[in-house]
Design a protein that fits this description.
The structure holds two protein chains of two kinds. Chain A is α/β, with parallel strands linked by helices. Chain A has 16 helices and nine strands. Classes of the chains: A alpha/beta, B mainly alpha.
């Protein structure tokens, strides 16, 4: 559904409002509309949202010269690349009264030491969503990446599995399955990961990063590789639709990709002051909690925790404890050579 | 792409007709094509010899070294294309899909176009309207509709599998299969085959058929000897209008293609999006453009060689 949404929003987003406007470029389904409405009321402005569904899509658009965005929500590796490109404005911390609410554990990361340009917004993990009943019927106990990579398990659920159509994410999962780091760029290791993917591929229905929420909730697909926030949505949708099955998700024991999304202001922003106001507003504990309650994202805001649905807080796939956190890795920005190698291996495996 | 077709025709006619006013008339489209086709193609050609920028885009094409300006160009993008067979296989696969779609569109579109062309004026307009009706809703929305139809829990698949079960056949999956891709490719491109064919068939002189009948030619004989050869220009135009967009298609394989449904368009898109590798994306685009132009030239020759009024 994401692609349709993006297209629709592009049409609907045409401005008709006379007051101040804040143009935001965000992941789709990644903000609490209630919080946005509150902010609009308070600042007497309009938040114009534009969405993307993949880091590379966003980077391609920004680097191709798209301007006019006041606030962008990129993932950590994109922040690193955008900083190196000199694309981002330094954040004026003196204007941010809610800075103290941020969990120090998510600050001062290697992609932006000292958080000069970025502040954490929310985080997700890339994990496996599944249809509880169907897997139980097949006698499959989901615990590891083997669920999407091991042909012996896949045999029982052939044609009912989708994986992300994203080279970094899928290679990341395969590398983790093999015991390597998700950021491993050693050609030999990448080739091993490619071999794992090629062996599993005949059992998959498709590479799909755009509609797996729907496929899971309808029951077309029983196992999907995707973002944790999407899986929370799929679980809630299946519940709301009163299906005869439940959607659940699991963080594989080998570890997974952690995506830490951030708020940044591009140098080309037209309304930097308003963007800074919105950042501060979003860092207020109650507002920040909306991201977890409405979207199902993990929260890097300490003041938000008391406002978050306790059931959600218990899930280590969404709110990883220290032990789980140690198995998670963030993706690093890659250089042209690595991207080229990965794309070559990707094209190869897709043709196999 | 139809623009190239027009351009080639214009060029051909300009060369033949020496009258300057024809040249003048073709000037605005020529300028348009120069700006929006020739210039970008040249930029792409240049980009294909440059290095990719570290974070996307292109690296500078010259270097300042010890006060001297040196060119920083490379053949490695082209070597990458030729150094392995995967891109050749990818091209062949895409051409395969395009040929298949074109043939099915032709087989399905011809009787349709003929029926419309031979029906009376009143129903003709209605039928034509029905052919173009799908254009009224967005392309992506229509593909998503197909995704619902193909879905394993959808009515079509369940009915099909119910019938197969009766005759003892195993269940089939429609979604994420080459069959689904071909069905959608045909569905989307059928009007592009029907409309030029109709335009051609509608102009045929029906007296020719009457004359042939008077001379004792049967139904099939009349078709093969008169209607078919006369309709060749229409078939050529329709085939080009179907073949070229299908060759570069990326949305349908993305949404419906399953694990093997990758076409050259997807890989080109990947170069500009995921890999941010503009030089290699340019290489692939140039190969695609050259293929398309070659097909148009071939079509133009075929359409010209065999008679008929198109």
């Amino acid at each position: 559904m994401r692609k349709i949404l993006v297209v629709l929003m592009l049409f609907l987003a045409s401005p008709v409002f006379a007051g101040e406007e804040l143009h935001m470029f965000n992941w789709n389904d990644y903000i609490s509309e209630e919080v946005v409405a509150d902010f609009e009321k308070r600042c007497n402005c309009k938040v114009v949202q534009d969405y993307y569904s993949g880091t590379e899509e966003m980077m391609a658009k920004l680097l191709a010269g798209a301007s006019g965005y006041d606030l962008v929500i990129p993932t950590q590796n994109a922040v690193q690349a955008l900083i190196q490109q000199g694309f981002l404005e330094k954040l004026d911390k003196s204007a941010l009264t809610n800075l103290k609410n941020q969990d120090p554990g998510f600050l001062n990361r290697s992609y932006d030491p000292g958080n000069v340009y970025s502040l954490p917004y929310a985080y997700t993990t890339t994990l496996i969503g599944f249809n509880e009943q169907r897997l139980k019927e097949q006698g499959i106990e989901p615990a590891s990446w083997a669920l999407i990579f091991d042909p012996r398990i896949l045999e029982k659920i052939k044609g009912k599995v989708t994986v992300m159509d994203d080279a970094d994410e899928l290679f990341g999962a395969a590398l983790k399955y093999l015991g390597y780091s998700v950021n491993d760029v050693d050609e030999q290791h990448l080739r091993e990961a490619q071999a794992v993917i090629i062996k599993a591929k005949p059992y998959w229905a498709a590479f799909n990063s755009s509609s797996y929420i729907k496929e899971l909730t309808v029951g077309n697909i029983w196992v999907a590789h995707g973002y944790s926030s999407d899986m929370v949505q799929a679980r809630n949708d299946a519940l709301a639709a009163k299906r005869d099955f439940a959607v659940n998700f699991i963080l594989p024991r080998e570890g997974a990709v952690l995506a830490l999304d951030n708020m940044v202001i591009p140098k080309t922003a037209k309304n930097k002051k308003l963007a800074l106001q919105f950042i501060d507003f979003l860092m207020d504990g109650k507002n920040a909690a909306g991201l977890s309650n409405d979207v199902g994202a993990g929260n890097p805001n300490s003041a938000a925790l008391p406002f978050i649905n306790p059931e959600l807080k218990k899930l280590t796939a969404i709110f990883p404890d220290q032990k789980v956190l140690a198995t998670l890795e963030t993706l690093e920005a890659t250089n042209a050579k690595v991207r080229r190698l990965k794309n070559m291996l990707w094209t190869e495996l897709k043709l196999k | 792409m139809p623009a190239i077709w027009c351009w080639i025709n214009t060029m051909r006619k300009t060369m033949q007709g020496k009258a300057w006013h024809k040249y003048l008339l073709s000037l605005p489209p020529m300028v348009y094509l120069l700006i929006f086709f020739a210039a970008p193609t040249l930029i792409m050609l240049f980009a294909s010899f440059r290095y990719a920028g570290e974070y996307g885009g292109l690296a500078p094409w010259y270097l300042h070294e010890e006060g001297r300006l040196t060119l920083d160009l490379t053949l490695e993008n082209w070597q990458r294309l030729l150094g392995t067979d995967i891109y050749l296989r990818l091209f062949l696969k895409s051409v395969g899909y395009a040929v298949m779609t074109t043939l099915i569109c032709m087989v399905m579109g011809y009787p349709l176009a003929l029926t419309i062309a031979r029906s009376d004026r009143k129903s003709r307009d209605l039928l034509l309207l029905l052919v173009i009706l799908p254009f009224w809703s967005n392309f992506l929305v229509r593909i998503y509709a197909w995704m619902i139809i193909f879905s394993p829990v959808g009515a079509l698949t369940r009915m099909l599998n119910g019938l197969l079960d009766l005759v003892g056949g195993g269940p089939v999956t429609l979604m994420y299969s080459p069959t689904a891709m071909i069905i959608c490719l045909v569905y989307v491109h059928l009007p592009f085959m029907v409309l030029p064919l109709y335009a051609n068939l509608e102009k045929h002189d029906l007296d020719l058929l009457d004359a042939a009948q008077d001379l004792g030619a049967g139904k099939w004989r009349r078709f093969w000897l008169i209607t078919w050869p006369l309709s060749l220009p229409g078939i050529t135009a329709g085939s080009i209008l179907v073949f070229i967009p299908v060759l570069g298609m990326f949305a349908i394989p993305d949404l419906l293609g399953g694990t093997n449904g990758i076409m050259i368009g997807n890989v080109i898109k990947q170069q500009f999006m995921e890999s941010r590798d503009w030089p290699f994306g340019s290489v692939l685009s140039i190969v695609l453009t050259v293929t398309a132009v070659a097909v148009v030239l071939l079509g133009a020759r075929l359409g010209q060689g065999r008679g008929g009024r198109g």
